[in-house]
């Protein structure tokens, strides 16, 4: 058991380094292989999976993956989050018509700031 300590420190460091720039959800899979779309990866190598998920090979202990987009959590019920898969950008759009941006009182809501741009009703 003591022999795994250096490997555990390395795995934790690599996963932290991969995910530290994007405070999003991360997961670790000890059963996963360091392969994606027919390509094999070595220890420390990263790749981007569909859905804007960045994964890092932590061979021989598994694969660590983190979302790379910042999803807003505080916005009106009539809005929804859309993630552009090719550019990994996030937009808030109207649920009734996703072609239109989420707007309140003439101000476009910034998805990175939730409802900060909204004026409260009196």
From TrEMBL:
GO MF annotations, alphabetized: cytokine activity
Alphabetical list of InterPro entries matching this protein: PSP94
Domain of life per record: Eukaryota
Compartments it resides in: Secreted
Keyword DNA-binding in annotation: no
Gene3D superfamilies: Beta-microseminoprotein (PSP94) domain
Any one annotated GO CC term: cytoplasm
Signal peptide interval: 1-21
Main location: secreted
GO biological processes: chemotaxis; inflammatory response
Pfam families according to UniProt: PSP94 (PF05825)
Keywords: Chemotaxis, Cytokine, Disulfide bond, Inflammatory response, Secreted, Signal
Keyword Secreted tagged: yes
Family of this protein: Belongs to the beta-microseminoprotein family.
General function of this protein: Acts as a ligand for C-C chemokine receptor CCR2. Signals through binding and activation of CCR2 and induces a strong chemotactic response and mobilization of intracellular calcium ions. Exhibits a chemotactic activity for monocytes and lymphocytes but not neutrophils.
Protein name: Prostate-associated microseminoprotein
